[in-house]
Amino acid sequence: MMGGMDAMVSEPDRAVSFAKGHGTGNDFVVLPDPDGALALTPEFVAAVCDRRFGVGGDGVLRVVRTAAHPEVAHRAAEAEWFMDYWNSDGSLAAMCGNGVRVYSRYLVESGLAEGPTVTVLTRAGVVVAEVGAEVAVSMPLPSVGGRGTADVGGVIFTGTAATCGNPNLVCPVADLDTLSLDAVPRLDTMQFPESANVEFVVLAKDDVPGADLHVAMRVIERGSGETLSCGSGACAVAAVALAGGLGTDPLTEGTVAIDVPGGRVTVSVSPDRCVLSGPAVLVATGEIDLASLRA
Ligand SMILES: N[C@@H](CCC[C@H](N)C(=O)O)C(=O)O
């Protein structure tokens, strides 16, 4: 009888194929599962994402046909592929902007989609990616909310709530380098019943050609801890920055260059569109040996 990690696949398979990719250092284990044969569990995802005992990653992207996933099969007419996204702690999230960019790169490089335009269903709705030297994706339109606070290891940060398919709190800070971001943020559970990603942001001193604003950010992601980049968080930051949340004159639309610890992404926001662009690459393929993976 199979149990634990073995329950992930049917006998006699003891291995699960994977690819590894990242978008500006936000890294993912990609699990190709077109026909929905894998029964992912939070424990399996956490074990795969473990950086010492597993493959290592900020999350898992299961590549599954929409028609083959019971949660979304009724939406198969909207997009052939569903991004089944999991955070590294095994929790599910509705949106992952860098994840969509890596997912789309994988679809095209593996031949599962022709490209360069790729339509993907996420738990936050359908998004469309353009896969080229970089990958640009049309994200859910960010919505800027009210003020809120985050307690990070006893230090209180104040910011502005913003959603982009998932909840965020965008906190302007004086300096990014001196922040200690090891603790899990404590947030107002009334304002953020499902917690949130917390972004820490400064205005950069120099201009970037083609951008209306240039900022730098770090992020503590819900379910993954501090990561080197967060695409949906970057969109939330752009929306808050354009609304004047960093002290600049409000703009109804514009382009924001956002430096993250893993590189730079660009977000263009207008009243009816939000596009996240940046590098997204695949760096490895391999097989996960289920018998050796820590349960
Ligand atoms: N890294 C992602 C966001 C992943 C989900 C997030 N941790 C959450 O729980 O909302 C991105 O690039 O958007």
UniProtKB/TrEMBL annotation:
What is annotated about its quaternary structure and interactions?
Answer: Homodimer.
The reaction(s) this protein catalyses:
(2S,6S)-2,6-diaminopimelate = meso-2,6-diaminopimelate
Q: What class of enzyme is it?
A: isomerase
Function comment = Catalyzes the stereoinversion of LL-2,6-diaminopimelate (L,L-DAP) to meso-diaminopimelate (meso-DAP), a precursor of L-lysine and an essential component of the bacterial peptidoglycan.
Q: Which HAMAP family match?
A: DAP_epimerase
What Enzyme Commission number(s) appear in the record?
5.1.1.7
Q: Where is this site: Could be important to modulate the pK values of the two catalytic cysteine residues?
A: E221
Q: Which residues bind substrate?
A: N26, N87, G97, N98, N166, N197, E221, R222, G231, S232
Under the heading InterPro entries, the entry gives: DAP_epimerase_AS (IPR018510), DAP_epimerase_DapF (IPR001653)
Task: Write the record's keywords in alphabetical order, separated by commas.
Answer: Amino-acid biosynthesis, Cytoplasm, Isomerase, Lysine biosynthesis
Pathway where this protein functions: Amino-acid biosynthesis; L-lysine biosynthesis via DAP pathway; DL-2,6-diaminopimelate from LL-2,6-diaminopimelate: step 1/1
The family note in this entry says: Belongs to the diaminopimelate epimerase family.
* The keyword Isomerase is annotated on this UniProt entry: yes
Q: Name one Pfam family in it.
A: DAP_epimerase
Keyword Cytoplasm among record annotations: yes
PANTHER family assigned: DIAMINOPIMELATE EPIMERASE, DIAMINOPIMELATE EPIMERASE, CHLOROPLASTIC
Please report the name of this protein according to its UniProt entry: Diaminopimelate epimerase
Q: Where does it live in the cell?
A: Cytoplasm
Chain ranges passing through the membrane: none
| Major subcellular location class | cytoplasm
Q: Which residues form the active site?
A: C96, C96 (proton donor), C230 (proton acceptor)
